[in-house]
Amino acid sequence: MTGTFWALVPAIVAIALALITKEVFSSLFVGIFIGGVFYAIDAASGFSGFLTHVFQDGLVGSLSDSYNVGILVFLVVLGIMVALMNKSGGSAAFGNWAKTHIKTKVGAQICTVILGMLIFIDDYFNCLTVGSVMKPVTDKYGVSKEKLAYLIDATAAPVCIIAPISSWAAAVAGFVTEGENGIFLFCKAIGFNFYAILTLIMMFVMIGMKFEYGPMAKFESVTDALKEAADELSDTKTNGKVLDLIFPVAVLIVLSVIGMIYSGGFFTADEEGYMHFAIAFSNSDASVGLVLGSFGALIITIIYLMFRKVISFKEIMESVPEGFKAMVPAILILTLAWTLKGMTDSLGAKDYVAGLVSGSAAGLKMFLPAIIFVIACLLAFATGTSWGTFGILIPICIAAFPEGTIRIVSISACMAGAVCGDHCSPISDTTIMASAGAQCDHVNHVSTQLPYAITVAVISFVTYLISGFTLSLGTIPCAIISWIFGIAALVTTLVFAKRILKANS
Question: What's the pTM value of the predicted model, to 2 decimals?
Answer without folding.
Answer: 0.71
